[in-house]
Amino acid sequence: MSDMEAVLTLAGARTELGTKALEQHIANALSLPTSNVAVVIDGDDCATIIVYPEKGDVKADADDFTAKINAAIQREEASAWTTGQEATCYVADDEESVLIGEEEALNMWRDMLEEDRTGHLDEVPNPDGVMIHPTHEETLPTKSTGVGFISPTESQLRRDPSLLWFDNVKRVHVSQTHDISWNKPIIITDGIPDDILANSGVFDKHRLSSVYGGVEVRTGNRETLIDNGFTNSKPMQLSEVFADSDRRVESCGRIVFSPVGELPEDLVDELRQFIDCFPRPTTEFATMKFTLTLAAEGFGIGMHKHNAAMFMLLVGEKKWYMTPRGDLEGDTGTHPGFYREKSSHKCIQRRGDILFVPHDWYHEIFNLAVYTAGIQALPE
Fold this sequence. Notes:
It comes from Cyclostephanos tholiformis. By secondary structure, the protein is α+β, with helices and mostly antiparallel strands. It has helices spanning 19-30, 62-74, 102-111, 114-117, 152-159, 194-197, 205-212, 238-247, 265-275; strands at 6-11, 37-41, 46-51, 88-91, 130-131, 170-173, 186-189, 216-220, 234-237, 255-259, 288-299, 304-305, 309-315, 318-323, 345-349, 354-357, 362-379.
């Protein structure tokens, strides 16, 4: 939960109405769009209300929202969605967290209208860490081979002349990982047996479109951090994603970033052979959550940091920019400097490589291939 939202508790909520009805009533009481309000039911008559700020506001005013809801209760304007004047709304404790299960989060995400799911992108809610907004993006033209066409890679070469060759991250064979301190980025080699890596054709986008084209996946772009979120991702059928990427070339293109647990069982079964190859570098990786990532040439998710993570690349090539520096927070001027002096570690990840990124290291990805596919692993 970012500090941009207001988190309130409503005691005396008519929870039997369901979250969507409560969100509508509360939004009306606050004179806000429904997309600015999310409700999590905490008990028989208790609900947590998350209110997102209006576009342009720095922070949602929790005290103001609380006063408006309590005024509606006292005027008996809230009798349809509360238990009456004994109901009360108050600002949630600073220490309080809103905890919901993955299944409930997925159902809430699917129940939202499409425009509601993308209603908070400007603020980029981020469940795992900090994201820095890029400042130099430009939309490139529809795919063309005509005069004046500039590919995403050519554009990035202007920012980072060493894009295609500089690599200072240590490579370690999977059999030697027991000697690693895990305090710096590491590329683990030969972590995927050849017979399993040979099956990476399951990620062929034409095959995926044919076999799983109707599957709904979570998508976003460089300005969205989607890792297991449900309000800041756009739902699309997989076939639509591929058709969209075939039509356009953008330096900030669409990315599939879908938790594996939400995918159909048949597809999960195909991914499991690769997932089973992830090492357990530290005790925090004893249990892991996995995310399927598919992307076109150009930027991946914008510069951000979170828990320690591993990324297995199965199709294509990626350039990674990483740094442990803590002085980047709130620094929107790090681009394009982040690609040069502000990233201490850079590497080119190739098919079959598993990259380990330590806890709280900023990182950003540039996809060098026309199509890339991989799996991310985070501690659960």
